[in-house]
Design a protein that fits this description.
The protein is an alpha+beta fold. The protein is globular. The relative contact order is 0.22. GO terms for molecular function: hydrolase activity.
């Protein structure tokens, strides 16, 4: 049973996002980005109460901007999904979770060191250039279930 319900179109959309956000960090980095996307679909809390699909997560607008820089700037997000990224997307949609993104709802690529918190959320770890953050304990139990 997959972690979230999805269609083939969701696999393609997620594969494009994973590539656009983390191609430079290899397959592992792309898996972590996919993990955060699925966590946001599962999370019924904080900024993610009203997003229940991959498409809603990827095109979510917060503070008058898209949540993901790749959607804002376009870069590689609007290229076709490749089989490698499609396979990685299915992997995260179906079962894959791992530290530091296992329960993360946010990530970003700072210009320096990863701060210990980001918008008040605790740092869970770093992979190459991306820093990952999960919700403060007790504020989003659903992310730990799905």
């Amino acid at each position: 049973m997959p972690r979230v319900k999805y269609r083939d179109a969701d696999v393609d959309l997620m594969a494009r996002m994973m590539r656009a956000e983390a191609e430079g960090e290899g397959k592992q980095g792309m898996l972590y980005v996919g993990n955060v996307i699925v966590n946001r679909v599962v999370a019924d809390c904080l900024d993610f109460r009203d997003v229940r699909t991959v498409e809603q997560v990827i095109f979510q607008v917060q503070g008058n901007n898209y949540s993901f820089e790749a959607v804002q700037k376009g870069n590689m997000f609007y290229q076709r999904a490749r089989p490698t990224e499609q396979r990685l997307a299915r992997q995260t949609l179906d079962f894959w979770r791992d530290h530091p993104a296992k329960y993360a709802l946010w990530y970003f690529n700072p210009s320096g060191e990863c701060p210990p918190t980001w918008y008040g959320q605790p740092f869970t770890g770093q992979f190459k250039q991306h820093c990952f953050y999960e919700p403060v304990a007790g504020t989003c139990e659903s992310v730990y279930m799905g």
